[in-house]
Design goal:
Blueprint lengths: L1 H7 L14 H24 L16 H23 L12 H6 L8 H19 L5 H24 L2 H26 L6
Helix pairs in contact: 2-3, 5-6, 6-7
């Protein structure tokens, strides 16, 4: 078996390589997120800026959603451009054999639905179960930790880095939650629940 891999000239897939999303899926999902980002930008631009009430531009209600819309649109554009630069799989890879698809690096990630449901559950748990019940920075830290750790868990487990995943997720979650709380409360003067 090992001789077959060497003679065929195809290297065995590395950890995580078999889960690369397809080029078409990246283009479609990137396009959807690009449309969502632009819709958010347009909606935030149309919001009342409260200039007649003397509200400074940096505290206008549409500023934060507008910035988030721009960031979503830029990330989506990056996904689409990366997918367009990636070569399409040769037509011989269109067979249903997982070995053939993985060999060309165009395996569609079958875990997308599970990750989407996990993300939805975490978001609902954050919004319904945590916000308003504990200080916001703690709620945000718990949500971010669980989101990062659980979504990275399969790859971390394959590489034997579960402990490192816990530490990285905890550091990012704590730093981000404190930064978010500080920025919104002290810079944007938004009272957080």
């Amino acid at each position: 078996m090992a001789g077959e891999t060497e003679t065929s000239g195809v290297a065995p897939p590395t950890v995580g390589e078999g889960r690369k999303s397809s080029r078409l899926a990246d283009i479609v999902s990137g396009g959807i997120w690009l449309a969502i980002g632009f819709a958010i930008i347009v909606g935030s631009w149309r919001m009342d800026r409260l200039e007649s009430q003397g509200v400074p531009w940096f505290t206008a209600p549409g500023l934060v959603p507008g910035v988030l819309g721009v960031l979503i649109a830029l990330a989506a554009l990056g996904i689409v451009l990366r997918a367009l630069r990636r070569p399409a799989a040769p037509s011989s890879a269109m067979s249903t054999s997982d070995d053939s698809i993985a060999a060309h690096g165009e395996h569609v990630d079958t875990g997308f639905g599970g990750r989407a449901l996990l993300t939805l559950a975490l978001c609902l748990g954050f919004a319904i179960g945590l916000v308003g019940r504990v200080p916001f920075w703690i709620a945000a830290a718990i949500y971010l930790f669980l989101h990062i750790f659980l979504l990275q868990f399969p790859d971390r487990r394959e590489r034997g880095q579960v402990g490192r995943g816990i530490v990285v997720a905890a550091i990012i979650a704590l730093c981000a939650s404190l930064a978010i709380s500080t920025i919104f409360q002290d810079l944007f003067l938004v009272r957080l629940p």
